[in-house]
Amino acid sequence: MDSKNKLSDLFHNYKISNLFRSLRARIFIIVFLTGLISCLVMHYAIIENYEKRAVDVKTSEVQTQLRILANHLITAGYLQDTSSEVIGSELNMLANLYDGRVLIINDDLQVVKDTYGISEGKTIISEEVVRCLKKGNDGITSVYDAADGYIEITTPIIETKSLEEGDVLDESEPKEIVRGVMLTSVSTENITTTLAILSRKATRVELIVILIELGFALIAANGLLKPFDRITSAINDIKAGYTDQPISVSDYLETEHIVNAFNQLLERMKVLDDSRQEFVSNVSHELKTPITSVKVLADTLLAQEEVPNETYRDFMQDISSEIDREDKIINDLLALVKMDKKATSLNITAVDINAMTEIILKRLRPIARKRNIELTLVSSRQVTAEIDEVKISLVIMNLVENAIKYNKDNGWVKVILDADHQFFTVDVMDSGIGIPEDSIDHIYERFYRVDKSRSREIGGTGLGLAIARSAVLMHRGSLKASSVPGEGTTFTVKIPLTYVLTDNSQVKAKKM
């Protein structure tokens, strides 16, 4: 049972993790949370704004009535004599109207009137009352206590002096004298009740809006991802082999970018598939030709009796040449396969490029002399780089050997070595037959030959440039060609001075 529970928990956790990785789920959550947060913010803003506005309106309304009542108190001399029933009735009516309490406090901080009738004759010390006595109208305060549900208001009772005929104006005496303070408590129960009703109604509206948002979020998530579903379906059809046509889903700019990238990949895969078929065909043809020649020569010898030694020797030399040609094709194919392997390791060392190039040219000069071709090295500076010496030697050797083979008698081959702070370059220039413009883009294809008859005559396999390009790309470099038919060709190799290890490359480095 424990193992079943563990498997169930693992499956549950896996489903939850996949759910949160889903773009559809994320869009749904984002849309829903956006609407929900907006509702909550609006709810809070409306309720808070209403409460503040209602308190301000009620405070202003009460203060207006308190100022009028304060004038009545001064006129009736209520602070000195509280026996006036009219004023008492007004105070009680005001207290009952607002379900509150009114305290009349004189300038000695004594309570002369309390509508509750419990604090009369007592002394009250309150910061708000003292401030109001000192500052008059500037000391008016109102405090809202939301927890207990009331507003406390202090209103000064001010006596204004008037000049009678014959009185002399004394600038030092104040015109307005604060005789006392009205401390009024006003209930906010109606505001609280209204807030509760408003909050309940707002909550019901929010629930309806949330349900609508849930539906909208589901529709939006599914609608927004429909183009991606069509892309997935189209890719599955291509994967299943039902079609090989390009995909077209241009609903969004993003889907258009994805589709364009996939179509380019699809086209690239078609090209690779065609290239693979052509490669297999070419390999079959190239390997079969020497074998056929050997068989024809052998059958010819077997069909003759008492073959002269000279004839026998000539036939055997031809057979040996065909076997050497077969061996060269196989070796080049093996070298190319090794270059194509992603896991191929590079033996990176710090190499003197000048010395390495000089050694290569020294090996090839005897071949150049046979056709009186001048082979020279022009070195602009001393160059040391981090490379796989064997592979880059093979690159330069292939390029220089091709420059000699496809050159004119009494021609020249020039190798120029240079470098900057990031790369070193090797230019292999010749005065050869050149390459037609329409063939430049194909010369790196396997078994491709510009002049097939001449290539077979000089022993080329059509794999040298493919091998050279693969080795250069392994070093994160570039190999480019430019040519003028009948005048010559220039190959330019550009390779970083420092090899940068990437996640996909495996390098075996040696310390010098």
**Average pLDDT, all residues:** 79
Supply the CATH superfamily name of one domain.
Answer: Histidine kinase-like ATPase, C-terminal domain
Instruction: Return the CATH architecture of one domain.
Output: 2-Layer Sandwich
Sheet bearing the most strands, described? Answer: 5 strands, antiparallel
Give the radius of gyration. Answer: 51 Å
Kindly report the spatial arrangement of strands forming the biggest sheet.
2-1-5-4-3
| Alpha plus pi helix count | 11
Distance between the termini: 63 Å
Helical residues, percent: 55-70%
Instruction: Give the CATH class of one domain.
Output: Alpha Beta
**How many beta-strand elements?**
13
The name of the CATH topology of one domain is Heat Shock Protein 90
What is the H/E order? HHHEEHEEEHHHEHEEHEEHHEEE
Q: What structural category characterises the helix and strand content?
A: alpha+beta
Shape type: rod-shaped
Flag low-confidence runs.
none
Strand content: 15-25%
Keywords:
11 helices, Heat Shock Protein 90, Helix Hairpins, 13 strands, rod-shaped, alpha+beta, five-stranded antiparallel sheet, five-stranded mixed sheet, 512 residues
Q: How would you describe the overall organization of this protein?
A:
Among the domains are: 246-340, Signal transduction histidine kinase, dimerisation/phosphotransfer (DHp) domain (Helix Hairpins); 343-509, Heat Shock Protein 90. The chain has helices at residues 2-21, 23-76, 85-97, 127-135, 189-240, 253-303, 309-340, 353-370, 389-405, 452-458, 464-474, and strands at 101-106, 111-114, 141-145, 150-160, 176-187, 345-352, 374-379, 384-388, 412-419, 423-430, 478-484, 488-496, 506-509. Helix 2 (23-76) runs antiparallel to helix 3, helix 2 packs antiparallel against helix 5 and helix 7 runs parallel beside helix 11 (464-474). 21% of the residues are buried. It is an alpha+beta fold. Helix content is 55%, strand content 18%. The protein is rod-shaped and about 160 Å long. It has a five-stranded antiparallel beta sheet, with helices on both faces. Strands 7-9-10-12-11 form a five-stranded mixed beta sheet. The mean pLDDT is 79.
